[in-house]
Specification:
Helix content is about 15%, strand content about 45%. With about 150 residues, it is an alpha+beta fold. It has a 5-stranded antiparallel beta sheet with strand order 1-2-13-4-11, covered by helices on one side. The termini are far apart.
């Protein structure tokens, strides 16, 4: 009888679907692609549209769609990981932010970057930008780019 009860409990446990652990999230490729299409109509006067995906203990995720150059940026305590979803652009990384102004604690914005390296961005590319590193996304005229950013706090 004890064996039957144990076997029944084991089978019940195996049949019960496992729940996601706290803090787990997942977006399928098709969900990300659909999100890309929904951002373009939301473009603002700076030619950018964003959508937050989630905020977690040490990181958050944001989808970004650009149809023009972004500002030069530097995050003192946050690293960025870019995952290009569609389109094309140029990432300028390193160097110094020109005309840099603190816009929030630990956040610097400027007009451009002096002395940075240029890297072409196309779908599937992944770029890791360490904290305290100047960077800027440039979008050639008539083009657009959509990328996922994972912002990782130090």
């Amino acid at each position: 009888m004890k064996t039957l009860i144990a076997l029944t409990a084991l089978l019940a446990a195996m049949a019960a679907p496992a729940s996601d652990p706290p803090g787990f999230a997942m977006w399928t490729g098709s969900e990300l692609k659909a999100m890309t299409g929904k951002l373009a109509p939301k473009i603002n006067e700076q030619k950018v549209a964003t959508q937050a995906l989630g905020s977690f203990a040490n990181h958050n995720l944001v989808m970004v769609h650009r149809e023009g150059d972004g500002e030069a940026e530097l995050h003192e305590t946050t690293a960025d990981v870019f995952v290009v979803q569609s389109g094309a652009g140029v990432l300028v990384v390193g160097g110094k932010v020109v005309g840099g102004k603190t816009t929030a604690p630990g956040e610097v914005r400027g007009t451009s970057i002096a002395g940075g390296a240029k890297r072409k961005l196309v779908p599937g590319d992944v770029a890791t930008i360490p904290a305290n590193t100047a960077h800027q996304v440039l979008v050639p005229a008539g083009q657009k780019i959509t990328y996922l950013i994972v912002k990782v706090k130090k």
